[in-house]
Amino acid sequence: MQQRFNRTLRSYLWILILIAVFVGSVFHFYLIKRFIQPIQSLIEATKELKRGQYPDLVKVHKSDEIGQLAHQYNELVVQLQMNEQQRNRLVTDVSHEIRTPLSNLNGYLQGLKDGDIIGDQALFASLYQESKRLSRMLEQLEQLKEWDHLSNQTIVVKETHEIEPVLRQCVAMFARTLEEKSIPIRLEIESCKVELHIVGIQQVISNLLGNAINYYEGEGPILLVGAKQEKAYHISISGPSQPIPENEKEKVFRRFYRLDSSRNRMTGGSGLGLAISREIIERYHQGEIGVSPKSASNAFWIVLPR
């Protein structure tokens, strides 16, 4: 009887051992697969990236070291894709915008060379202004590329500044131009501390003031207003000019967009200043920028969070 019991007990023990070994093997296989799969996915994705193709993002199921590695790799792929898109957009924009003025310059220069066109002071001045416009466009493209890069960085560095002296300093840079053109300007600026990138804000204000001066038509002063709001600081720059049509308000902030190409050539406009301003305000400062046309003026405004 005792021997029979021992045999039965041994049989059950062997069965339990076999079940434990089987369950352990399955569990071990599952853990190994779960541990190795992200690494294998990273290896395959890296091979695909090496071939010049952007792979699908690696699925992240854990927050351990492997999960963090996969997460960082995904961010790298996204950043590379964004850089590639910006590069393609920049090349397309440049080739599209520069082709026409270069063709014009080449045509006139070829005509002068062949004797088909007689050069005079007005023609040479026009060609000089066109070359200056191209130079300015290239400078602004470089600025736009720089802000594109900065706005896509994960770490944004801003400092707290008193906004009033910043705005007054920007206006002071145009004092001579305003005096030469006999354009009055009025400032209504409230003091306030705002977190901003000082160089970026100076560039935006300079762009808007430059536009207000270049397109000044009529009488009355250019008005710069800085006002504190509950959770923001509002800046407005307005001046007498031809009002922007309602259906063009958003388009003027597009790259290379111009309301009147002949008018922009006369003032040296490239269609990039407002695009740069939007890049700096919206993507780098998380603020807002827009324009409010009136009957005989345009008011460009900025809202900066504080």
General description of the model:
This protein is α+β, with helices and mostly antiparallel strands and 306 residues long. It has three domains: 2-56; 68-151; 159-305, Heat Shock Protein 90, CATH 3.30.565. The protein has eight helices and seven strands; from the N terminus they run H-H-H-E-H-H-E-E-H-E-E-H-H-E-E. It has helices at residues 2-50, 65-114, 121-151, 163-172, 175-180, 198-214, 261-267, 273-284, and strands at residues 159-162, 185-189, 193-196, 222-228, 232-240, 288-293, 297-305. The chain has a five-stranded mixed β-sheet. The chain has a two-stranded antiparallel sheet with strand order 1-3. The radius of gyration is 32 Å and the shape is elongated. The N and C termini lie far apart (89 Å). The model is unreliable at 261-268 (pLDDT under 50).
Fourth CATH level, the homologous superfamily of the largest domain: Histidine kinase-like ATPase, C-terminal domain
- Helix fraction, binned, reads 55-70%
Pick out the low-confidence regions: 261-268
When the domains are counted, the total is: 3
Mean of pLDDT:
78
State the CATH topology of the largest domain.
Heat Shock Protein 90
The SS-based structural class is alpha+beta
Strand content: 5-15%
Q: So what's the overall shape?
A: elongated
One letter per element, helices H and strands E, the order comes to HHHEHHEEHEEHHEE
Number of helices: 8
In CATH's first tier, which class of the largest domain applies?
Alpha Beta
Number of DSSP strand runs: 7
- End-to-end Cα distance: 89 Å
Domain Histidine kinase: 93-306
Domain HAMP: 33-85
Keywords: ATP-binding, Cell membrane, Kinase, Membrane, Nucleotide-binding, Phosphoprotein, Transferase, Transmembrane, Transmembrane helix, Two-component regulatory system
Catalytic activity: ATP + protein L-histidine = ADP + protein N-phospho-L-histidine
